[in-house]
From TrEMBL:
Location of the ABC transporter domain: 1-234
Any Pfam family matching the protein: ABC_tran
An MF annotation (GO) of this entry: ATP binding
Domain of life: Bacteria
InterPro entries in the record: AAA+_ATPase, ABC_SmlMolc_Importer, ABC_transporter-like_ATP-bd, ABC_transporter-like_CS, P-loop_NTPase
Protein name: Molybdate transport system ATP-binding protein
Phylogenetic classification of the source organism: Bacteria, Pseudomonadati, Bacteroidota, Flavobacteriia, Flavobacteriales
Keywords, comma-separated and alphabetical: ATP-binding, Nucleotide-binding, Transport
């Protein structure tokens, strides 16, 4: 169990903002931090990782105190055993993929983990290449493997997938889920993508101006009925056209625009600009407005 109770004064674009977080995360969960830009998501990861000191509070991980302002405890980042993956890959350009992973090994650690990760994250063919010769998705797989070398207690992913296109993103999501389960990790992911959140995480923490405004199971927080659907994706309505008893929705999904037919009950509730979740079951699209 990770218990986080921290306060820190931040300087936002609007002036002073108090980050005030009090929550707990079950061991083994995959949690998403979600919220507007500047809400405090990255700051939470940095304070958990020991890169930034809160003004007050406590961070307790599996009964070990990582931070306690009253007892003046503040474990160094190296003692916290967290793995970070950021949107910019931060790989060493002069080292090969394998050397990048080896660099993360601790002195006493067996190099077996490197071979294991290369296999698990499918880096075999890339292991002797330098980062500059890799695609964004490949670099991010290396960054993920590197973060796992030390077998972290917590894996923290700060929008690692946002620069990648859909197909590569989906593959990386699978890799993240796979390592999360394989290594019994507690994973904290920052994401803005609702279908990614629904697919990947079992707990959602929504932040606004430094405070938690909603928290719980993602489908409950977004008020989405759970369907046993074959596929789901999210998009934004950019046009609605009524044709007799049906509505033709023009929906922007990532870089693509698609047309979807909604029935009268669904169509009446929708407006241009709404974010929707589209699920399909037996070829019938089911459209849900996301709150
Ligand atoms: N060390 C610091 N001292 C004071 N203010 C800070 C510090 N670090 C970040 N901030 C401010 O705190 C606010 C929250 O920043 P943070 O990076 O946590 O937001 P975020 O939710 O991750 O946003 P984004 O989605 O854009 O990455 C911002 O206004 C930022 O300028």
């Amino acid at each position: 169990m990770i218990k986080i109770n921290i306060q820190k004064k931040l300087t936002s674009a609007k002036g002073e903002m108090l980050l005030n977080i009090d929550t707990s995360i079950e061991k083994g969960s995959l949690v998403t931090l979600y919220g507007k830009s500047g809400a405090g998501k990255t700051t939470i990861l940095r304070t958990l990782g020991g890169l930034l000191k809160p003004d007050n509070g406590k961070i307790i991980v599996d009964n070990t105190t990582w931070y306690n302002s009253e007892q003046s405890i503040n474990l160094k980042p190296q003692k916290r055993n967290v793995g970070f993956v950021f949107q910019d890959y931060a790989l060493f350009p002069n080292m090969t993929v394998k050397e990048n992973l080896e660099f993360a090994l601790e002195k006493k650690q067996s190099p077996k983990i490197i071979t294991e990760l290369i296999e698990l994250i499918e880096l075999g063919e890339l292991q002797n290449r330098k980062p500059e010769t890799l695609s964004g998705g490949q670099k991010q797989r290396v960054a993920l493997a590197r973060a796992l070398v030390k077998k972290p207690t917590i894996l923290m992913l700060d929008e690692p997938l946002s620069a990648l296109d859909y197909e590569i993103r989906f593959k990386l999501q699978q890799h993240i889920l796979q390592v999360h389960n394989e290594y019994n990790l507690t994973t904290i992911l920052i994401s803005h993508d609702i279908s990614e959140i629904l697919r990947m995480s079992n707990q959602l923490i929504e932040l606004d101006e430094g405070k938690i405004i909603r928290e719980g199971k993602p489908s409950e927080v977004f008020n989405i009925k759970e369907y046993n659907a074959k596929f789901q994706f999210t998009g934004t309505i950019i046009n609605i056209e009524k044709q007799g008893f049906i509505y033709i929705l023009m929906v922007r999904i990532g870089k693509d625009i698609v047309k979807i037919v909604a029935d009268e009950t669904e169509g009446k509730q929708l407006l241009i600009g709404d974010n929707i979740l589209i699920s399909a079951k037996a070829f019938n699209p089911i459209i849900n407005k996301i709150n």
